[in-house]
């Protein structure tokens, strides 16, 4: 092990990949590593390795990695665990830069054999230039590089994910994608026998394509380095969203049997969250939601929310939840109220205050809705607008399930021109008539860049944390913070 | 106002209904009160009232309610606000038992005229035998009686909803329905000029069809009575799930402009939740989830959870969330572990501890999954089983999006025979291939009575509160509690 920093190119953009343990059965391999890479559009050189085959999916197959004539950047090792050390030694001999060990059954199991084999891998790593991802993990996803560990979205974006878990990483990427948050790079690194979250984080902080970073961590070898790197990332304006799993009780105990990691001390993690500027989250879904809030808030630095919606009870519930998460829902001035009163919201079924309840209005549902945004968006009493629509409201008002589409479409037409960021809460349609409509609207909002959340809690929680992150970042970069540092 | 207790029959099962303000335009009325009642299958006598029409939707139309020859039990008043007092006086003269004032624009507005009109309604109520629901509300839903305020599910169940908000009530009913929680009675009562939450609660406690009661309250006139009635309901084993809206800050201020209610003091509501046995919730969705947990736990009184699922990271996250909400995730004994080890879960990709990570197994995904339930369900180390499936896992394992159906179907075949209750967490399918599958599975679980939640948090929160409710109820009914009372 060189200790040399790894680069984004080495991990995520290899020019050549060997699949050690490619199946000799093309039908199987089509749905495994070689097939996945071909389907995903990997354009580098691809070398299946299996002593029992001469060709895999039309590619020449090699008996071992050392038999390949050209240099190999990256190897995927998908072999029974007892064969992994030998394959890794071959990779080292071949000069492979990064080897990903997919195989599980190592230190994460209670078995002595698993621990012994992981220690053997560790010894090979220490003697070689080859860096190892894993074992017991899914490895790397990078749409730009055509690299993936599953049938994941091909669209790439500026978020990066460093995840100790594998299945969770896939779900995180897919859910975030549906929200309009796209990952450019992701790595599932499992037992971290060599490369740890800190190594990937260090590389991604320097990556100009990466604008935000999410971490799912069960344990880390060098907590101090993680803290420092997170601070550095935050200072540079790249938020770090951290899900630390196994903070307490049985979850803590479960960590060691999942990736063999040590969960770390409570105090250590408290210090991490208190001092690093990391944004703490506690579910995989929250990762996507937090990244969505960060990318949707733009230059917003204040926490004063105007709430606009349909349905009086839901507006009050939204207000209460916003306040619980530290957002302010200020009273409107008489001036703003007068503006609202001039709009068509000033009719039966409307309530003119914050939260605003927008009635259908004589000019029609869409018009009254949009007029309410225009009436409050220019006010300096608020920093952002949270709007909520109830997809079931059609059942009460006129019977047309498309009414929610009309409102969302009207909002999509204007939200970019409003001087304040807009956050939409649109819960899943529960009535069969509204279900498909809502799914289509979520996709349309994601595409247009209108942040859409599925509930008040996820919206208020994520928005509040994003605002605090930006405030903290600004403070870190202010002359005042520098003076404090100098003291 | 008589002060006499109203009955479930008077409010929810009227033999005759007058719709005062039925439209003379049949196309309009078809989608309004008269049409809704006909579509919903109301089988009592139905009397449209409008001086400008002689017939509405094929029914004889009356110039006023006093012109109707037969007695009328129940009236819906859907007129411009200034006409409401006169219509209500007519109802009183006619001897109508319950009048529902749909019209809004009263004390919930800032206008003097609205307040004056509400005071006038109040005076009429005080002089008459007619009890009033509203104004500014949607009124009554009761599938058994064929009464509804919208195109809501016709299936009826044993839950009841008393809701100050209207749109929220519709969404609550529809969402709960999709979870397999069916309401037999619901009322939206708005400004509560006469009948308040306490009146409906008193009636529903005595209703043998009602097994659980949910309240959405903005304010209540007699807090002490609400506390006593809730205690009584809890003592009798009918849980009361309470969403008190507007507990703090701007939400509190917003309440008065929604239904004209006084939000009440913080201390008063703290005492209510501390002393009544009500289960507090904070969103409309939580109402359905809480009722689902209550109906799904059966005789379960302990909080020790076995967690079984696929995906190691998600299992740890589930564990952490269970613990956060006060559930215990105990270590398994060697005996239980040995049983698990005998199942096909004892293969690569499995982790044998609590949380259990179930690998695919040589006997196939379904078999290994079900075997794990059998291995732990008989153990007296646990009280219930929480299982989670990741609908996106097919992307990693074999590529068949139906794998999640196979697992759920296998579980549906056996869960009733297991000696411990099972709770399933099945998040929405985010990949297009799994979306429809998951929606269909939710419906199948709801139909079969397997409680299915869409996330770990909603499951752990609701289950934990349900267990505490049952423990508290048992204690209330124990000899020890009686002795304490006697002291």
Distance between the termini of chain A: 39 Å
Q: Percent of residues of chain A in helical segments?
A: 40-55%
Low-confidence stretches of chain A: none
Strand content of chain A: 5-15%
Report on the architecture of this protein:
The structure is a homodimer of 487-residue chains. By secondary structure, the first copy, chain A, is an alpha/beta fold. The first copy, chain A, is 43% helix and 14% strand. Chain A is built from 18 helices and 18 strands. In chain A, the strands form four sheets. A six-stranded mixed beta sheet of chain A has the order 8-10-9-11-12-13, sandwiched between helices. In chain A, helix 15 links the parallel strand 16 and strand 17. In chain A, helix 6 packs parallel to helix 11 and helix 14 (365-377) packs parallel to helix 15. Chain A is elongated. The mean pLDDT of chain A is 91. At the A-B interface, helix 6, helix 9 and helix 12 of A face helix 6, helix 9 and helix 12 of B.
Give a brief description.
Two copies of one chain form a homodimer. Chain A has 487 residues and is of the alpha/beta class.
């Amino acid at each position: 092990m060189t200790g040399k920093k790894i680069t984004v190119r080495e991990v995520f953009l290899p020019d050549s990949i060997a699949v050690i343990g490619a199946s000799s059965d093309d039908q199987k391999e089509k749905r495994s590593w070689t097939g996945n890479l071909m389907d995903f559009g990997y354009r580098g050189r691809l070398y299946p390795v299996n002593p029992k085959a001469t060709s895999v999916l039309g590619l020449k197959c090699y008996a071992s990695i050392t038999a390949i004539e050209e240099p190999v950047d990256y190897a995927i090792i998908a072999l029974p665990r007892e064969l992994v050390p030998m394959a890794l030694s071959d990779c080292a001999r071949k000069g492979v830069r990064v080897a990903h060990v997919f195989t599980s059954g190592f230190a994460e199991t209670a078995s002595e054999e698993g621990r012994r084999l992981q220690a053997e891998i560790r010894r090979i790593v220490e003697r070689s230039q080859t860096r190892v991802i894993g074992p017991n993990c899914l490895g790397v996803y990078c749409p730009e590089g055509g690299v993936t560990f599953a049938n994941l979205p091909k669209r790439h974006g500026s978020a990066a994910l460093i995840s100790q878990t594998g299945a969770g990483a896939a779900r995180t990427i897919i859910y975030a994608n549906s929200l309009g948050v796209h990952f450019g790079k992701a790595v599932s690194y499992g037992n971290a026998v060599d490369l740890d979250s800190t190594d990937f984080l260090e590389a991604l902080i320097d990556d100009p394509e990466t604008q935000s970073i999410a971490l799912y961590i069960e344990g880390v070898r060098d907590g101090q380095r993680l803290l420092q790197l997170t601070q550095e990332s935050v200072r540079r304006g790249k938020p770090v969203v951290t899900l630390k799993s196994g903070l307490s009780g049985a979850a803590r105990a479960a960590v060691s049997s999942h990736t063999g990691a040590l969960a770390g001390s409570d105090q250590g993690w408290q210090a991490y969250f208190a001092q690093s500027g990391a944004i703490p989250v506690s579910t995989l879904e929250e990762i996507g939601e937090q990244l969505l809030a960060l990318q949707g808030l733009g230059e917003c630095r204040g926490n004063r929310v105007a709430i606009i919606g349909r349905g009086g009870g839901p507006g009050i519930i939204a207000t209460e939840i916003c306040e619980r998460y530290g957002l302010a829902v200020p009273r409107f001035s008489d001036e703003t109220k007068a503006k609202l009163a001039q709009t068509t919201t000033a009719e039966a079924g409307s309530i003119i205050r914050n939260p605003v309840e927008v009635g259908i209005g004589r000019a029609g549902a869409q018009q009254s809705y949009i007029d309410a945004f225009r009436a409050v968006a220019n006010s300096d009493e608020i920093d952002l607008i949270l709007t909520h629509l109830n997809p079931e409201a059609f059942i009460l008002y006129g019977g047309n399930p498309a009414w929610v589409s009309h409102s969302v479409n009207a909002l999509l037409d204007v939200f970019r021109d409003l001087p304040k960021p807009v956050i939409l809460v649109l819960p899943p349609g529960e009535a069969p008539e509204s279900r498909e409509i809502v799914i289509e609207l979520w996709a349309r909002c994601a595409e247009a860049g209108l942040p859409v959340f599925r509930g008040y809690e996820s919206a208020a929680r994520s928005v509040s944390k994003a605002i605090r992150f930006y405030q903290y970042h600004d403070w870190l970069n202010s002359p005042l913070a520098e003076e404090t540092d100098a003291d």
